[in-house]
Amino acid sequence: MATSVRTSNLKKPWAWLAAIAVFCLALASSTALYVVNPAVRLQLPWWTAVAAPVLVYALVLPLCVPRMRIGGWLAGFFTLAVLHVCIALATAWLY
């Protein structure tokens, strides 16, 4: 009986595209909230704007890329987290 060759999910572009789509949705939803009502002021600590989306990335990445090893999850998680922080810093600088 022949066994199938296992391929890494890290090499599947559709899985990474789905993870990046979640990143874009999180960014778009926060932007849409500001566009709809720019006067909204939530009484939350400053770090919640960074921590909440990063937690979402940590949960969604394994769902988008099944059977991912811990090294791949860490690489994807830190990539998305760094991207989010960079966009947040650029937004704060522009604002």
List the helices and strands and how they pair.
Layout lengths: L12 H24 L11 H17 L5 H25 L1
Account of the 3D structure:
With 95 residues, the protein is mainly α. 69% of the residues lie in helices and 0% in strands. The protein is built from three helices and no strands. Helix 2 packs antiparallel against helix 3. The longest helix has 25 residues, at 70-94. The chain starts with 12 loop residues before the first helix and ends with a helix.
Short recap of the structure:
The chain is 69% helix and 0% strand. It has 95 residues and is mainly alpha-helical.
Taking the sheet with the most strands, its summary is: none
The gyration radius over C-alpha positions equals 17 Å
Order of helices and strands: HHH
- What's the shape? elongated
**Helix percentage:** 55-70%
Number of DSSP helical runs: 3
Which descriptors apply to this entry?
95 residues; mainly alpha; 0% strand; single chain
